[in-house]
Design goal:
The chain is an alpha+beta fold. Helix content is 44%, strand content 19%. It has four helices and three strands, in the order H-E-E-H-E-H-H. The model has no long low-confidence stretch (mean pLDDT 89).
């Protein structure tokens, strides 16, 4: 849980809805995870569009995590947590799953 002093106010739901991820294999999506919050369907559409655009040029397995709204970087630059905690969480989870995979081979 992100403390309120590090999080951001969710006025329209679009920024929070634009945060999600896509797992791809050779540029093709195999798992897409975005959810509308407070009716933020424009955010979902923008997040998915950006993640698929970035991931379309990848080879092998790829995880693309985005905040799709164009003002996300501005909110993050003000010291608010838009993607910082998601990035740290993804690093831990990917490392853990890769270790499990190696162990189970």
């Amino acid at each position: 849980m992100i403390p309120p002093e590090r999080g951001f106010k969710d006025r329209t739901g679009n920024l929070r809805s634009s945060i999600g991820y896509v797992v791809l294999v050779d540029g093709k999506p195999v798992n897409v995870a975005f959810a509308a919050v407070k009716g933020g369907h424009a955010g979902v559409n923008e997040g998915q569009r950006l993640a698929l655009q970035v991931g379309s040029k990848t080879e092998g397995y790829a995880l693309v995590v985005v905040a799709g709204m164009n003002y996300a970087v501005h909110v993050e630059s003000k010291g608010r947590d838009v993607l910082t905690s998601a990035e740290k969480f993804a690093e831990k989870e990917v490392a853990k799953h890769l270790a499990d995979l190696v162990t189970n081979i």
